[in-house]
Amino acid sequence: MSHDARRYFDLPSPFRMKRGGELHAARVAYETWGVLNDARDNAVLILTGLSPSAHAASGTADPSPGWWEGMLGPGKAIDSQRWFVICVNSLGSDKGSTCPASIDPATGEPYRLTFPELSLEDVADAAHAVVASLGIERLACLIGCSMGGMSALAYMVSHPGSARAHISVDTAPQAQPFAIAIRSLQREAIRLDPAWDEGQYDIHAGPDDRRYPDIGMSIARKLGVITYRSAMEWNGRFARIRLDPEQRDDDPFGLEFQVESYLEGHARRFVRTFDPNSYLYLSRASDWFDIAEYGHGSVLEGLKRICIEQALVIGVSTDILFPLEQQEQIAAGLQAAGARVEFVALDSPQGHDAFLVDIENYSRAIGGFLARL
Amino acid sequence: MSHDARRYFDLPSPFRMKRGGELHAARVAYETWGVLNDARDNAVLILTGLSPSAHAASGTADPSPGWWEGMLGPGKAIDSQRWFVICVNSLGSDKGSTCPASIDPATGEPYRLTFPELSLEDVADAAHAVVASLGIERLACLIGCSMGGMSALAYMVSHPGSARAHISVDTAPQAQPFAIAIRSLQREAIRLDPAWDEGQYDIHAGPDDRRYPDIGMSIARKLGVITYRSAMEWNGRFARIRLDPEQRDDDPFGLEFQVESYLEGHARRFVRTFDPNSYLYLSRASDWFDIAEYGHGSVLEGLKRICIEQALVIGVSTDILFPLEQQEQIAAGLQAAGARVEFVALDSPQGHDAFLVDIENYSRAIGGFLARL
After folding, report:
1. pLDDT for the residue A3
2. Which CATH fold topology does A7-175+291-372 show?
3. Which of A117, A185, A230 sits opposite B226 (nearest CB)?
4. Where are the domains of chain A?
5. Closest Cα of chain A to B260: distance in Å?
6. Which of A193, A287, A319, A358 is catalytic?
7. Distance from CA of B197 to the nearest CA of A (A)
8. Burial B74-91 (b: 16+ CB within 10 A, else e)
9. Cβ contact (<8 Å) for A259 and B180?
10. Helix or strand or coil: residue B178?
């Protein structure tokens, strides 16, 4: 019954990290779809947001739907009949890659907060090592969504010539203070939960285990969902509709409106499926990312160091976490770097999450771009 | 040393509330500026946001600056040399009015969660009783800011003919799902703090008392500040500036960016200055408010039941909590009701809080409107 399409790549040991730490015997989980051609020039790499696994879509080994099921597969926008598609689970994520919940070979105990400081450059380097291990010198296209878009910028700036084309989806060239504030508060909610216990909660806690920061993770997730969607969507979807009386409990401050129940459902599905320490590390890595570090403090100059032939940059006007102006910055920077750039500004109502929901418009943009490569 | 300009009005007992409860021997705190003229037709009432007290500005009895110091006083936009200005502390707030932290005369113990369900209609009715007690039949102008703007709509719809003019500042004719989601999460952060203890924390806790939900209140306040300001302001104000090393502690997930320190400062100044149960009651009352209840489910029809001569409606394009479209709804509804309406859409970068910060532009609009009355 347990389907698993993940493969694993053992990173060179030690794997040296941007901020000075190193990992020993670390590995990266990934999945692939399609077939690498003899010229090895049809590879597409997808770098993910903070929480998704490498299971972007179903396949023969794992027929369960993936997080980008509508976008990837035979005949879909990212067509696995033409492309050899790789999706990597970020280093530091608990979906198969080495992360703070993994065993430190030096101690035989989980790393927890002794995990080295993680940056998105490390996520990118680990993904690049996977691609190289598959015998691919140059990607046909590098796709990055949300946090993965920042990882993709790190990938391209650190590994010149590693990709011919790039698709940037709902991301940012640097973390801005509003996004930092949101993520900082999410981390604080986790850290202030007494059950987090300085990272010493029960790892791999099942539903009956007690020592897991449910409250902090629930607040963090709800705040995430609030910033991943948009007020406009919710006005249409939830308005002021209340729950049926039988859906409510006696708590005078309990759930009353549908929007509250929606958030509660999201939180319940998330809590206990993600390692809290890994969440903290990846969240902080997102705050740290700044392409301007590669451009003497200038975002534009940093982006100009990225050498690709063409790019598609997509953003959404309703995204409050990665606002459209940041997508415009990326487009302008890649253009200034010499790439042919297509810029698509959508007005999908779903906010930052539109790339996961408005498959029709994202398919048209991404499928069209890939078809013209 | 202890200056206090508050006066108190004892509400009729019992004071019956919208949702069925009643209060006995309840009172409302308020402050006044200026002199009521013989015709009793120069009174201006200010209804506040969720957390401010009645101390809107300094005066002879209390020379400390008030929360709208730049706006109210001799020669200022709300000119206390012309107007007799009243600011009421909302019923249910802990700044002098009867609230969940007050003693229930029936038990001799604080109400806590036995406080009756509070609505903004009750806040409005209590304020109206204060005004009537001062011998004022009709306000020259009713001003409502943020939550106070919703209370003002309740005031006018429940008490026809009680105001000649109205100034609506950064508010809403009904709570929309995005605002409900934010407030629901703030309440959840407080309620999930074990120190909240189902409302049984130490009331009037000093800094050394332990049993107060500091964590929950801190998270609630930070989330509030995030939604009261704007991403645009913070890009200019904080960018990615980091704290000096000596401002940082050893916590690997501690404060690093200036924006995080800014939020921390706001939280520290707020926590322990506001009663958590009162916060819960007022926050929930904001979610409940819906002028459409007076218009058979239609916001427009509800607003059309408000009978005033003229109105000024102000909003800010950067406000994500009370978006500009909601100010437009109010303006359109009051106009449809027959009022002469001026609508001012500002582009102050400070978001919802602009009315407290961008005194120059708010003064021009409010002062100009009042001068023409």
Report:
1. 82
2. Rossmann fold (3.40.50)
3. A185
4. 7-175+291-372, 179-279
5. 6
6. A319
7. 14
8. eebbbbbebbbbbbbbbb
9. yes
10. helix
- Is pLDDT at A30 greater than 50 in this prediction? yes
Active site residue B10: no
According to DSSP, the β-strands at A78-79 and B78-79 are unpaired
Q: How far is CA B309 from CA A7, A63, B46, B315, in A?
A: 72, 66, 18, 20
Residues A168, B319, A299, A328: what is their CA dihedral angle, to the nearest 10 degrees? 40
Q: Is the Cβ pair A231, B323 closer than 8 Å?
A: yes
Number of residues that make up chain B = 373
Greater pLDDT, A252 or B79: B79
Q: Which amino acid is at A25?
A: A
Judged by CB atoms closer than 8 Å, whether chains meet at A188 and B117 is answered as: no
Inter-chain residue contact A181 with B253, CB threshold 8 Å: no
| Whole-number pLDDT of residue A310 | 98
Across the interface, of A181, A218, A239, the residue whose CB is closest to B226 is A181
A53 as an active site residue: the answer is no
* Maximal C-alpha separation, chain B: 65
Query: Pick the catalytic residue: A55, A159, A266, A352?
Result: A352
Tell me what pLDDT residue B206 has: 64
Q: Are B34 and B82 in contact (CB under 8 A)?
A: yes
Task: Share the mean pLDDT of chain A.
Answer: 96
Chain B: nearest CA to A130, how far in angstroms?
29
Judging contacts by C-beta atoms under 8 Å, the chain B residues touching residue A256 are: 287
B37's tokens: 């003229």
pLDDT-based confidence at residue A14 (cuts at 50, 70, 90): very high
Q: How confident is the model at residue A205 (pLDDT cuts 50, 70, 90)?
A: low
pLDDT at A102 over 50: yes
The phi, psi pair for A220, rounded to 5°, reads -60, -45
Phi, psi of B366 (to 5 degrees): -70, -45
- Which of A51, A102, A146, A283 is labelled catalytic? A146
Burial, B320: exposed, middle or buried (Cβ in 10 Å; 0-12, 13-18, 19+)?
A: buried
**When comparing pLDDT for A247 and B302, which is higher?**
B302
Q: Torsion angle of alpha carbons A143, A146, A150, A151, nearest 10°? A: -60
pLDDT at residue B1 in the model: 47
A177 → closest Cβ in B185, B235, B320 = B235
Report the distance separating Cα B46 and Cα B61, nearest Å: 19
Which amino acid, residue A146?
S
pLDDT at B207 over 70: no
Give catalytic status of residue B352 as yes or no. Answer: yes
ipTM for this model: 0.95
The answer, yes or no, to whether residue B365 has pLDDT greater than 70, is yes
Nearest CA in chain B to A184: B260
pLDDT recorded at residue A249: 86
Q: Is-same-fold flag (B7-174+291-372; B179-279)?
A: no
Average of per-residue pLDDT across A57-82 = 97
Taking residues A305-317, what's their average pLDDT? 98
C-alpha–C-alpha distance, residues A29 and A9, integer Å? 7
- Would you say domain B179-279 falls under CATH 1.10.1740.110? yes
**B177/chain A closest Cα distance in angstroms:** 6
Interface test with B, best of A119, A241, A253, A283 (most B CBs within 10 A): A253
B211 neighbors B202 (Cβ within 8 angstroms):
yes
What is the maximum span of chain A, computed from C-alpha positions, in angstroms?
A: 65
Q: Are B255 and B261 in contact (CB under 8 A)?
A: yes
Note the CATH architecture for domain B7-174+291-372: 3-Layer(aba) Sandwich (3.40)
Give residue-wise pLDDT tens across range A321-357: 999 999 999 999 999 999 999 999 999 999 999 999 9
Concatenated DSSP letters of B278-343: HHHHHHHHHHH-BGGGGTTT-HHHHHTT---SEEEEEEETT-SSS-HHHHHHHHHHHHHTT-EEEE
